[in-house]
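Sequence decides. Consider this:

===
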Amino acid sequence: MVTDYEPPLSEKPPGMESWKAGVKPLAPGVSGFAYEVNGEIWIPLILAEKKGAGDVGRFLDRLSARCVIVDVTSKRLEAMLVRRGWVKRMGTDHDTWRRQT
């Protein structure tokens, strides 16, 4: 499995009042936003265009080790990350999910 995909970056983290403006295609069937923080790619929003089509799973499987999934609130996404070996780390400002190295 190739795990070197890095999604297109947004200019900056979108503000809470205009988060929809920052949403863009991240991969086939997946939209959201991603931005760079200290050499990592933070992904705080992942949206499936067709729920249950497998696009989010394929997206997660391909992500590079630089990618960090941030502040997961969906139990479904959390289960997908656990099945794929991602590890949750509790932070002071954000909870993060990273590939197990």
Observations:
- The first strand starts at residue 24 and ends at 27.
- Helices lie at 55-62, 75-83.
- The chain is about 15% helix and 35% strand.
- The domain at 16-99 is CATH 3.40.630 (Aminopeptidase).
